Amino acid sequence: MYTVSTVHSKGGCGKSTVAINIARALQLRSLDVAMLDTDKQSTAQNWRASGSEELLPVFGVEKPSNLESTAEGLADAFDVAVIDGGAHLQEMHAAIIKQSDLVLIPIQPSPGDIWPTETIVDLIKARQQVAGGPEAAFVINRRKQGTRLGKATEEALRQFDMPVWDGTADRVAYAEALGNGISVVESSNNKAAAEVEAITDNVIETLSTNGRR
Ligand SMILES: Nc1ncnc2c1ncn2[C@@H]1O[C@H](COP(=O)(O)OP(=O)(O)OP(=O)(O)O)[C@@H](O)[C@H]1O
Ligand SMILES: [Mg+2]
Questions:
Q1: Domain ranges of the chain
Q2: C or N: which end of the chain has fewer Cβ atoms within 10 Å?
Q3: End-to-end Cα separation, the chain, in angstroms
Q4: Which CATH number fits domain 2-207: 3.40.50.1860, 3.30.930.10, 3.40.50.2300, 3.40.50.300?
Q5: Ligand 1 nearest-atom number relative to CA 20
Q6: What positions does the domain CobQ/CobB/MinD/ParA nucleotide binding occupy (predicted)?
Q7: From CA 7, how far away is CA 200, in angstroms rounded?
Q8: In whole angstroms, what is the distance from residue 10 CA to residue 179 CA?
Q9: How far does the centroid of ligand 2 lie from the alpha carbon of residue 122, in Å?
Q10: Residues 58, 105: contact at Cβ < 8 Å?
Q11: Angle 104-193-21 (CA atoms, 0-180°, nearest 5)?
């Protein structure tokens, strides 16, 4: 089983949105996918409850010390686990990074989101030094159309020496999909669907290039 996660200490940057949308997109590509929801707000579990029967299962994990055993319990039954990381949970972040083959860091194109990024990058790099992984990438989330903020953010993130993926634009379709228990890839918004398919392509390519740790 491959494990992909979304983490950032900044609240509201798109961790749940990115995690949920790629998890469902992976499931629609015929993979067996489970989600692990580490957020006390239970966004992924609420999304699951709003969706149809066939939607992937979402398991709540409250304590960092339970993450590894929960993931191990799923390893034989699932191809991919997607972990939705909550905000401001340093200990949980360390556990998620340890468990992941690929960590995605959603970033909104605003200086207030870039400044606190160093802490999470340091945690990931420290783990990469001792364990040789996980892979990691920034996903620019909620890019405002018609502004240069996305490009400026991309340039500012280069200092961290990690890949920067295009991610999502600011679209109502994302909030609607969350409430309807679907991924935007199933919505009528083709642009949002193409964004999530592109992130999903990058996830699969990164995992298949680097393998399991
Ligand atoms: N690309 C987007 N376009 C429009 N709205 C978005 C987009 N991405 C996220 N949102 C909205 O922004 C809000 C915060 O997103 P989300 O819940 O994914 O962030 P989060 O990082 O998981 O937050 P938290 O730290 O509270 O767990 C939600 O209301 C979500 O619907
Ligand atoms: Mg969340």
A1: 2-207
A2: C
A3: 10
A4: 3.40.50.300
A5: 18
A6: 7-182
A7: 17
A8: 22
A9: 21
A10: no
A11: 40
Which single residue is written with the structure tokens 């939705």?
A: 84
Q: Whose C-alpha lies nearest to ligand 1, atom 3?
A: 170
CA nearest ligand 1 atom 8, residue: 14
pTM above 0.90, yes or no: yes
Q: What is the pLDDT along the chain (213 residues), one digit of tens a residue?
A: 999 999 998 899 999 999 999 999 999 999 999 999 999 899 999 999 999 999 999 999 999 999 999 999 999 999 999 999 988 778 999 999 999 999 999 999 988 888 889 999 999 999 999 999 999 999 999 999 878 877 888 889 999 999 999 999 999 999 999 999 999 999 999 999 999 999 999 999 999 998 665
Which residues lie at CB < 5 A from ion ligand 2?
A: 15-16, 39, 43
Count the helices and strands in the chain (H runs, E runs): 9, 7
What does the chain come to in residues? 213
> Nearest 10 degrees: CA dihedral of 99, 100, 101, 104?
-170
Ligand 2 centroid – CA 54 distance (Å) = 22
Residue type for position 74: L
